[in-house]
Automatic annotation (TrEMBL):
The Disease resistance N-terminal domain, residue ranges: 11-96
Keyword tags: ATP-binding, Coiled coil, Leucine-rich repeat, Nucleotide-binding, Plant defense, Repeat
Domain NB-ARC: 173-345
Stretches assigned to the Disease resistance protein At4g27190-like leucine-rich repeats domain: 884-974
Protein name: NBS-LRR-like resistance protein
SUPFAM superfamilies the record matches: L domain-like (SSF52058), P-loop containing nucleoside triphosphate hydrolases (SSF52540), RNI-like (SSF52047)
Coiled-coil residue windows: 36-87
MF annotations from Gene Ontology: ADP binding; ATP binding
Matches recorded under Pfam families: LRR_R13L1-DRL21, LRR_RPS2, NB-ARC, Rx_N, WHD_DRP
């Protein structure tokens, strides 16, 4: 049950709806106005006394039960009044339609007989009146006192930029943790763990955020990652979160091996800092050990994990050292923080008595920053001393002595206005630690009538933002983050877990989140607002409303299938206000029954059209169709008169807009507008939409034939738009349409625009408003794309706020600074882009210079990122870039040296140019680049450079020498760069060198730098170890930190026979003794099994051998009669040389006949593919002679394999078994018992006709059988396992498919499997096991 009930906002909404002009007019027309007036009087009577009732309900079960009845009746009254309002809007919409279509609305929404409708609504209204009448009678027995709502004045003006207060009292702890994190001793370990421990509200997360964002920490670690763990310590989910944070892309796999390889690829042995925030797994040591193993496999030496937790036992399980037990704030620091929060907006007007009471309250907060912040935010809204005394004397302070922090936080909640209370409590719908998108949250508040209104619809969002900012100021929300993509601004926030607990206690089960760990069965009737991350309990769209009959908000993230039903009574009766749902196919027309709907989010769905019934959503305020496949919008959207937000961003297939969209007078968001002269979407429609705000993309501008139409659109009056994209179709550029310039001239925006993107403009020059400063003076980002006929840029260097400039495909552009530079005052030869932070110039075939004057130059004092791509005539790059951190140069055919004659205005000496801030540099496809400086490589200094990529620069003779921090180097197809020089780089940790498809180069020498951790070599034949190193090989045999080695087409590491070349090749392998991951690919010299090469690799854990066409695996061959008849079987038994080998993957080695190392007891994963001469039966028998730790086994493409070995029972740990493309195999061993097997995949094995009768797979979760037509049935024990499967796929197995389909023998067995695919599979993709990547990177 909810901790308390706040009904006054609901009653206020009902009162306002009962007086709505449309409702009044409609009820009068249908002769129900007397009942409406009676209902209004009843509601007003309740409204007078509801405040007293809410206060008395806290300690009175009878009053609380009465209020529950009142809430249900009030909700029903609102629904009935909404129906009246809906019918009034529908009648108004019908009256606006042509007569031919308004006589009868046939089909799905046929208008009822007016007498039937009147009778139905009269009964509903009478029922509500009767219910509320009884409630009022009971109310009179409580002797409630009439009182108005409490007056709470908010004197402070809030805005969206409100941020958290500065941290007070944690400076010492911050420095102590940073000192531990940066301790050089940690370099001795791969990973070390620190823990920050403390009770909720102490500020653990905030403190670690300070550490995480400290400049020293950012510079020390190559990668910093933040993952919120919360209560569910799920290893797979944590790893997926780390991958997403590291790469920006979410992993779709749940396979641990796949995730491990993805993790290793993304983290790439970098030294990283990982924060695991809010960990609770105090009894799950095994899970931590599993996660730690995965993290160690991907970590560079010196990586650190910081854990925040409330439980010291968590720190013990994670072996954290040191453990920082966070202390409470001192009284002095508590007062400083309270004072900052409470009096920041008082302008010094607080009295001494305010301060004395404030100090007492601050001391009572128990040194908890969260409580201090919340109380400071509360007291800042109250200036009367009486209110301060009242709160000081509150009994809730006694609860702090028993560590019940929630009661203290509830004190802050109790002093919120009623509308703010319900807005905050609604957020219990979100899972803990969820990132809430603020604008969407406000739209959900509006959809549920939580935002008070005076009858006007215009300022609801503004009021919503004010409420949010006030809640933020009072610490009900935190961690506000702003993400900006081009044109879009997304602001998110989170709730502290204690605040989330408070919200959950306040609302009880009215707001419910379905997680894997909880069930909704016992609370379904109570739920009003539902969110679901995992939806296994709800099977089908209709079932949501069957299971939750009183639901008003439904937010479902996971993709579902729509399962049509013959009866739709649940949809007809639902009172849903907000729905988020992802459809996998077209949306059913029955969705139109949801007449109460205000918020509909269908983003990322797969439908192509919306049903026309959506036109009847007259109450809909927000429609989100982002990233869908939609091609056309419903034709009569103009009747959706309450629509305020229409999101169409990412709808690349949208062809046109419906006619009459300009009639939507409340429309504020329209992210995409497609003009199409033949299908609709006239630019004139925008003329009246002056409330539009945020971002809009206007595409299809070539359809505008008249300048007057563009003028009527009146973009200049849409002053709330901050981002504008103007897009012509690319094909319109081919002929150079004649009206592009006048059209663009007419589309003049207002002068407050922040982002402007012009794409496909074919005019001969830009219009006047774009070539002069006043209109574009506030631009922060400008993107000019495919303006092929323009020869001159706007005066972008004069824009005081421009931070991002992108110029692409402007064929006629010759110089960046053109004739408009005449307007520059002072030194015209030096143009300064004063605040530009990001510059991209791309596909400019005629660009020759940065400045049109021969001796002109440009400077970019704040530039952080520079990309120059495909500018073949440009001869130089700017050198006055003191802040440049990331530089990408590609396809500059005329570039001869990085620093040339353009450095005359640079402060440094001409003989030494310093790129003092540059951290990442990429040089690609520069055919004439010869040097770093015209005076030599020693003349360019890169003191901060950490990553350097050089590709296809055939004339460049060296890498830079002044690179003290260079950690990552990739050199590809640069035949003049000597390996000898690379060998001496001081702290290099990652090296990739390649000569692809190039002739043999002259002899070179190489030694891995001593700090190297990862090495890739491709295409090297004529190299040998450095001479000076050869003398030290006896005393220094290994590179101690080199963990990953990939050798591709580099035969210098192998020799076909004895002799000097063999000895030289073996010397290289003495460097590699610490290697854990080894990949050998396309090495033709590898014929015999590389026993001597691998002899010293005692640390090796993973071995990949791919595409080695001459590898036989032989060492000492004894020829015997082969069971295959045409190849040799090798009987030699080899000594164990790889004691720690865990993963062996051999692929496409057609001559391979034996694998000598498969007897390794440590082997966990064995994959063999496309090795047709390998005797699989003999190999498997060798693998499983003794009980083994093998967890995954995959055999693919063994055409001669027919029989399994007899001792399969020796695989007790096998979890995944994958058999593909083995036509000769006929069956599994009888009585096969694999107790740990979770995934079984059988593909393209037509010889298998059945499973053995005794097959026992008690742990099976995923089963895939593809193209095995001989299999007709499951054995009994497997049938018993079917209901427990999570995934079943049966494709191209006709008999088995029939038994699994509706009416078949197995239909009832598989009905509860969450994810199943029976038949009709056409994908050419590989099985889930074959997607496992090896360490071979791109």
């Amino acid at each position: 049950m909810a901790l308390e009930m706040v009904l006054s906002p609901l009653i206020s909404v009902a009162v306002k709806k009962s007086a709505d002009a449309l409702v009044e007019q409609f009820c009068r027309m249908w002769r129900m106005d007397e009942n409406r007036k009676t209902l209004r009087r009843h509601l007003l009577a309740v409204q007078e006394k509801i405040e007293d009732a809410q206060e008395r309900a806290v300690g009175s079960p009878a009053m609380k039960e009465w209020m529950q009845e009142l809430e249900a009746a009030a909700q029903e009254a609102v629904d009935v009044l909404d129906e009246f309002q809906y019918e009034a809007l529908r009648s108004e919409a019908i009256s606006q339609q042509p007569k031919a279509s308004s006589k009868v609305i046939k089909g799905f929404f046929t208008h009822e007989n007016p007498f039937i409708f009147r009778d139905k609504m009269s009964k509903k209204l009478t029922k509500v009146l009767c219910t509320i009448g009884k409630i009022i009678s009971e109310m009179n027995t409580f002797n409630l006192t009439p009182r108005g709502p409490p007056t709470i004045t908010i004197d402070r003006q809030t805005q969206s930029s409100v941020m958290e207060s500065d941290i007070i009292g944690r400076e010492h702890e911050k420095e102590e943790i940073i000192r531990e994190v940066l301790n050089p001793q940690r370099e001795r370990n791969i990973i070390s763990v620190l823990a920050v421990i403390g009770m909720g509200g102490l500020g653990k997360t905030t403190l670690v955020q300070l550490v995480f964002n400290d400049k020293r920490v950012k510079e020390h670690f190559q990668l910093t990652l933040w993952v919120c763990v919360s209560t569910d310590f799920n290893v797979i989910n944590i790893v997926k979160s780390i991958i997403q944070v590291a790469s920006g892309n979410a992993s779709t796999s749940d396979n641990k091996e796949v995730l491990q390889h993805e993790l290793r690829k993304k983290l790439d042995k970098k030294r990283y800092l990982l924060v695991l925030d809010d960990v609770w797994n105090d009894d799950e040591r095994d899970k931590w050990e599993e996660l730690k193993m995965l993290l160690c496999s991907a970590a560079g030496a010196g990586s650190v994990i910081i854990v925040t937790t409330r439980n010291e036992s968590v720190a013990l399980i994670m072996e954290a050292f040191p453990k920082h037990n966070l202390a409470i704030l001192t009284n002095e620091d508590s007062w400083k923080l309270f004072e900052k929060r409470a009096f920041s907006a008082w302008d010094g007007k607080q009295t001494e008595e305010h301060r004395e009471i404030g100090k007492t309250i601050a001391h009572k907060c128990g040194g908890l920053p969260l409580v201090v912040n919340a109380m400071g935010g509360l007291m800042g809204t109250k200036k009367e001393l009486s209110a301060w005394h009242e709160i000081l004397k509150s009994r809730v302070w006694d609860e702090l002595q028993s560590k019940n922090v929630l009661f203290i936080l509830k004190l802050s909640y109790d002093h919120l206005p009623s509308d703010m209370k319900q807005c905050f409590a609604f957020c219990a719908i979100f899972p803990q630690d969820y990132e809430i998108e603020i604008e969407k949250l406000i739209q959900l508040w509006i959809a549920n009538d939580f935002i008070p209104t005076d009858g006007s619809m215009e300022n609801l969002e503004k009021k919503g933002r004010s409420i949010f900012n006030e809640l933020l100021h009072r610490s009900f929300f935190q961690n506000v983050k702003k993400e900006e993509t081009y044109g879009f601004s997304k602001i998110t926030c989170q709730m502290h877990d204690l605040m989330h607990d408070l919200a959950r206690k306040i609302v009880g089960n009215k707001c419910f989140t379905i997680l894997k760990s909880n069930s909704s069965e016992s609370v379904q009737e109570e739920v009003h607002h539902l969110s679901a991350q995992y939806i296994d309990e709800i099977r089908g769209f209709n079932n949501i409303f069957k299971q939750f009959p009183n639901i008003r908000t439904c937010l479902i993230d996971r993709t579902l299938y729509y399962e049509p039903r013959k009866k739709n009574s649940y949809l007809k009766s639902c009172s849903l206000r907000a729905l988020k749902y992802q459809f996998r196919n077209n949306i059913p027309k029955e969705i139109g029954y949801m007449k109460h709907l205000r918020y509909l989010d269908l983003s990322a769905s797969f439908f192509t059209i919306l049903p026309e019934t959506i036109n009847k959503f007259y109450n809909l305020q927000t429609l989100i169709l982002s990233k869908t496949e939609i091609q056309e919008l419903p034709s009569k959207m103009r009747y959706m008169i309450n629509l305020r937000h229409l999101f169409l961003d990412g709808c690349s297939k949208l062809q046109c807009m419906p006619i009459g969209l300009g009639q939507l007078k409340y429309l504020q968001t329209l992210t995409k507008y497609v003009l199409n002269s033949s299908k609709g979407g006239n630019i004139r429609e925008l003329s009246q939409l002056n409330l539009l705000s945020g971002y809009i993309s206007l595409s299809g501008l070539e359809s505008i034939r008249d300048k007057e139409d563009a003028q009527i659109a009146n973009l200049a009056k849409k002053t709330n738009l901050y981002s504008l994209e103007l897009k012509w179709d690319e094909t319109s550029n081919e002929g150079g349409t004649t009206n592009s310039k006048p059209i663009l001239e007419a589309l003049i925006p207002h002068d407050k625009l922040k982002y402007l993107h012009i794409n496909g403009y074919s005019g001969s020059g830009f219009p006047k408003w774009l070539m002069e400063v006043p209109i574009i003076r506030n631009l922060k980002k400008l993107k000019l794309q495919q303006c092929i006929n323009c020869a001159e840029l706007p005066p972008v260097w004069l824009l005081s706020f421009l931070e991002d400039l992108h110029i692409e495909k402007m064929d006629n552009l010759i110089s960046i600074v053109g004739s408009t530079g005449k307007h520059v005052e002072g030194n015209k030869s030096l143009i300064i882009f004063r605040v530009l932070k990001e510059l991209t110039i791309s596909d400019l075939p005629n660009l020759e210079s940065w400045h049109e004057e021969d001796f002109g130059s440009v400077a970019f004092p704040e530039l952080k990122t520079l990309s120059i791509i495909d500018c073949p005539k440009l001869k130089s790059i700017p050198t006055h870039v003191p802040s440049l951190e990331d530089c990408h140069i590609k396809k500059m055919n005329n570039l001869i040296s990085i620093v040339g004659s353009t450095c005359k205005h640079v402060e440094e000496s001409k003989s030494l140019i310093t790129f003092r801030a540059l951290k990442e540099l990429t040089l690609s496809r520069l055919p004439n680049l010869e040097s770093w400086h015209k005076e030599g490589s020693e003349s360019v200094d890169f003191p901060e450079l950490k990553s350097l990529i050089i590709k296809h620069c055939p004339k460049l003779k060296s890498v830079p020498t002044r690179v003290p921090l260079l950690a990552s180097l990739k050199v590809s197809n640069c035949s003049e760069i000597k390996l000898r020089q690379i060998s001496h780089l001081p702290i290099l940790s990652k090296l990739s060198i390649a000569l692809e498809n190039m002739p043999n180069r002259e002899l070179d020498a190489f030694r891995p730098p001593k700090t190297l951790e990862k090495l890739k070599m491709h295409g090297y034949e004529n190299i040998y170890p450095l001479e000076e190193e050869e003398k030290q090989l006896i005393s220094c045999q290994t590179n101690p930190v080199l963990r990953e080695l990939e050798i591709t087409r580099s035969n210098c590491f192998f020799s076909c026979g004895p002799g000097p070349s063999k000895e030289v090749a073996l010397k290289f392998w003495k460097y590699f003794a610490a290697v854990e991951d080894l990949a050998i690919t396309d090495c033709d010299n590898l014929v015999l099994w590389p026993k001597e090469e691998l002899r010293n690799l005692e640390c090796l854990k993973r071995l990949y051998i791919w595409n080695c066409s001459n590898l036989t695996g032989a060492l000492i061959v004894q020829q015997q009669a082969s069971p295959l008849g045409d190849s040799s079987s090798l009987t030699v038994t080899l000594p164990q040389s790889l004691p720690h080998l865990e993963y062996l993957d051999i692929n496409n080695c057609p001559e391979l006949v034996q694998i000598p190392v498969v007897c390794s007891e440590s082997l966990k994963n064995l994959e063999i593919a496309k090795c047709p001469k390998l005797n699989i039966e003999e190999m498997l028998a060798h693998v499983i002679t003794n009980p083994t730790e093998l967890e995954e086994l995959s055999i693919d493409g063994s055409i001669h394999w027919r029989v399994w070995p007899d001792n399969m029972e020796h695989l007790p740990s096998l979890e995944i078994l994958n058999i593909e493309n083995c036509p000769g195999i006929e069956s599994f061993p009888p009585g096969l018992h694999l107790p740990s097997l979770e995934r079984l995949n059988i593909e393209n094995c037509p010889g298998i006709e059945s499973f053995p009768p005794g097959l026992h797979l008690p742990s099976l979760e995923r089963l895939n059988i593809t193209n095995c037509p001989g299999i007709e049935s499951f054995p009994l024990r497997l049938q018993q396992r079917l209901p427990s499967l999570q995934y079943l796929r049966i494709v191209h197995c006709p008999a088995l498919e029939r038994r699994c389909r509706s009416g078949g023998d197995y239909c009832h067995l598989i009905s509860r499997i969450p994810d199943k695919r029976i038949g009709t599979y056409k994908s050419k993709g590989k099985s889930f096991l074959k997607n496992l990547p090896c360490i071979r990177g791109s």
